[in-house]
Amino acid sequence: GCYIIIWTGNQDIDFVTKYLIENNIPFDSINDEAPVSKKLLNGKTPRKVYGNVYIDDRAGLFQVYQDLTKLIKNVRN
């Protein structure tokens, strides 16, 4: 039931797509809104991508690991 958006500053979307596929990283879109947010905003473009969970690589890999582990535990419960 999740919709995964990869939001990146990398301009080479083909590279990003290839990287995600080669590393078995699931995703639904790259630098695009989820269909549900387009419905909620009546087709308007928001200032920030809509989401329930944000993971930022600038927080550091350890922080991302902790956040993902916590999220998985909460989803399983």
Description:
The structure is a single chain. With 77 residues, this protein is mostly helical. The chain has three helices and two strands, in the order βαβαα. It has helices spanning 13-22, 35-40, 61-76; strands at residues 5-6, 29-30. A two-stranded parallel ribbon has the order 1-2. The protein is globular and about 35 Å long. The model has no long low-confidence stretch (mean pLDDT 80).
Give me the Rg, rounded: 14 Å
Strand content: 5-15%
Principal-axes geometry comes out as globular
Output the helix-strand order: EHEHH
Layout: helices, strands, pairs:
Layout: E1 5-6, H1 13-22, E2 29-30, H2 35-40, H3 61-76
Parallel strand pairs: 1-2
Summarize the structure.
It is built from 3 helices and 2 strands; from the N terminus they run βαβαα. The chain is mainly α and 77 residues long.
Give descriptors for this structure.
about 80 residues; two-stranded parallel sheet; 3 helices; 2 strands; globular
